[in-house]
Amino acid sequence: MDRHLRHPSRPARWGGAGLVPVQSSSAAEVEVWTGWIEDEAEIWEALIAIPIERGDAVQLRSVPVYAYGLNYGDAVECVASAEGPLVISHVTSVGGQATFRIWLGSDADPSAWRRIAEAYAKRGCIIDMSTMSLIALSCAAEDAEPIRHLLNEDATRTASPGSRHTDGLTSQRHDSPLQGRHVQPPSGATRHRARAGDNVGKVRANSMDDARPNAAEVRSKRGPEAALAIVIGGVLALAFGWSALGLVRDTLHFNCSWGIGGEWGPDGTWVCADGIGYLGVAVVLGGMSALIIVAGLLVATAAPSRGRSVVFLVLAAIPIGWIGWWTYYAATLYSGPRPAGETGLGLWASTVLPSIILCTVSLIVGAARPLMMRRWSFVALWCGVGLLLIATVLQLGIGIATFVSAGMLAAAGVGRAPAR
């Protein structure tokens, strides 16, 4: 059966006369979960965290009691589970803390936990209570060896016969900071469910049964939504690809000649190549879009992260740059006579450039979601996608590229959890 564990109290430190709860410097606290598989059951531990300025990372403000490989003060990135809670995906930077767990035994003296907690709090450690028998300590990494030595001495001198302090990932006495790894505790490690009511400082009243993330659903956030956005963009680009041929032939007069008088008529006219003469255009524009779609689908197989989002943004920008440059080339290639007052550059600037500028603005607006990951950035993302669609409507001939860009922009913003 799955287990969902919340800390019954806030972490505490020594306040001069006793233990006092550690107060966050940010009012925007969030609850994040870390999970693992143990004995064919999913185990989840909830931790307090606060948003920090580095992108969408949050900083842990709880001492992990059950999860290994995480420490108080670590900066972590999260993804959103299907039900909404944030789940830690990996550590982005370590906080310089080491974690110890003290197990006092199932028949421990009810007053023993306070004596031990205060003793180590006076040495600068942060205390996080799980039960009267299980205490988590967070100490500065440089003090890890002295604290471990003291714990070894206390285990034989002051604790009850069954007491000990638990180890970290292997036989160490504290958790080593592991950067960039998913949390996976050792198989079969002893775990203890937190009991509400045993507390140090302010008791957290949250239920242990609400907002339970599901590991399978969290894993499903790895790519389907991004891939779906890319596929939809590709289908729309294919459906409206014919408009690109109309743009380069009928509007920009690529592969055309202009004349006046005689067989050209008194007002002049453009004569263009037949359809076969534009197969190269279809290959150049359609081929680029196809390559970008394939690249995007490959990127979508990676776990959601800032790096993946940046790649999607680059892939979104390439089709816009490509269609902008290629239509400019098509409009200015012809050097023969033109109607009075018309130039290739002027024709391109009046028919294509406004949409290209709007597409560029849309990328800048939409990039707020994957790069900043604030809650309001969700609106910015879809405003960016909407501006891309508006730019395409203004000049449907660029849709073979801009629909692909819209799919990449949407893919850049899905699957990642907002930090604030």
Automatic annotation (TrEMBL):
Membrane-spanning intervals of the chain: 226-245, 276-298, 310-328, 348-367, 379-412
Pfam families xrefs: DUF4265
InterPro entries in the cross-refs: DUF4265 (IPR025361)
Acyltransferase found in the keyword field: no
Entry annotated with the keyword DNA damage: no
Keywords: Membrane, Transmembrane, Transmembrane helix
Location of region: Disordered: 153-218
Protein name (database record): DUF4265 domain-containing protein
Organism: Microbacterium lushaniae
